[in-house]
Design a protein that fits this description.
Shape: globular
Number of helices: 3
Radius of gyration: 13 Å
Number of strands: 4
Strand content: 25-35%
Structural class: alpha+beta
Amino acid sequence: MMITITTSGGIGGFGLARKAEVAVDELPEPLHSETCARLDPAALAGLRAGSAPRGADRIVYHIVVVEQGAAPSTFDLPETVLPGPTLDLIDELLDFVSKR
């Protein structure tokens, strides 16, 4: 599974955009298991269903999940709908990729 995470928005939209492409199978445990659980297309679709309207200075996460043999699943989720542990995971993935 490949996951691409792109951020936009934030304080005035300046300098906060980040992007990471993650090959989930290459992640160490327990990061691999947590990523599979929290960024699974079904889990993200459930969050999208409760998506709140965007507000000023909010970060929006554009997440594309590509599973082998399936069409890409695309989600645009404002930070307000993502649970704290999922936001922490996304930050960890962005940091993990930037350090490689």
